[in-house]
Design brief:
Shape: globular
Number of helices: 3
Number of strands: 0
Helix content: 55-70%
Number of domains: 1
Radius of gyration: 11 Å
């Protein structure tokens, strides 16, 4: 997970070839699903839930 690796939305957008706004929209959707206020909390919840390693 690139967010867990510390990549910015701009870096991720360049890696996958889409607009930064698209990455931000998908990131916001994941934050909402995890009920996380920020990326750090989202990554922590994903680690605790064994969604990512």
């Amino acid at each position: 997970m690139w967010i867990a690796d510390g990549k910015t939305s701009a870096e991720i957008s360049r890696l996958i070839g889409c607009a930064t706004a698209t990455v931000e929209r998908h990131k916001r959707n994941v934050l909402d699903k995890f009920e996380a206020p920020n990326s750090a909390a989202m990554v922590a919840k994903a680690l605790r839930g064994k969604i990512i390693e």
